[in-house]
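Response to reviewer comment R2.3. The reviewers asked that we include at least one raw input/output pair. We reproduce the pair for Porphobilinogen deaminase here without editing.
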Amino acid sequence: MSEPSPLVIGTRASPLALAQAREVQARLAAESGLPEDALPLTPMTSTGDRIQNRALSEAGGKGLFTKELDEALLAGTIDLAVHSAKDLPTELPPGLAIAGYLPREDVRDVLLTPLAADLDGLPPGTVVGSASLRRQAMVLRARPDCRVTLLRGNVGTRLRRLESGEMGATLLALAGLKRLGLAHLATTILPTDSFLPAVGQGAIAITIRTGDERVARALAPLCDAATGFALAAERAFLAVLDGSCRTPIGGHATVEKGSLAFRGIVLTPDGKRAETVERAGDPADAEAIGREAGRDLRARLPAGWVAG
Ligand SMILES: NCc1[nH]cc(CCC(=O)O)c1CC(=O)O
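Raw output as returned:
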């Protein structure tokens, strides 16, 4: 019998990306019966990883974290790419498709700070570091006296900069901390009603070449349908609103008892104004639900809030 040809897994090289890719590798090995050495990992550094000193919204261009993996897929040097769904642009390059998502981790943000037990307890004027315009705006909305500052880099870098006292607090995704075995570092979990997560937060997406049935079939048993519906709604919402990545936007869908519920928010960067939207319906209509939520919200925004 001939050896099955390997399925090469592309990933970014950060510790979180590697942890996620290893999770896909282990699940794929379990489902396919292939040994893990027939599912090799190919780590790559992305443009987004190299830019450490600027906000990504300033660096311009979408897909800063995905370009190298996209190119490797199209060139055939990898067969699947593992992404944080949050970092995946709403539109993929021609020839690529999302094969599916692993079951979603906790979607919530956490606060990390040595200064207090929660956000309300932070001393007045505390400097909160985050690279996310959404998190910055939501912190300012809850605590207008705090100062927000750019904090980039991978999770480890951010934790070191918090430890050095350069800032008093930061926010991270609980999902990423859990995957790194660092959830115990969280000071407190922020509730989704005031800290609506980023679109895709907590979900691992797998991209493949469009029409690559061999890889699609191998991945199908790993993929979670409820996460797929939720992400379809969230990504459709973002696609309607995301003229630029300079707008603080949150969006989150859940699927329970056969019904999909979506909530979305757009804020001004200073957190002083916010518009929200809610929609529910059949998971089969996920994309339309997200799109209509986006259109409804966009129609209510004062001119100049979002581009495009
Ligand atoms: N933008 C970086 C990024 N992309 C995905 C995660 C966390 C894992 C996830 O949301 O699935 C993080 C770090 C963070 O926001 O704390």
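The radius of gyration is 19 Å. DSSP finds ten helices and 13 strands in the chain. Further pairs are available on request from the corresponding author.
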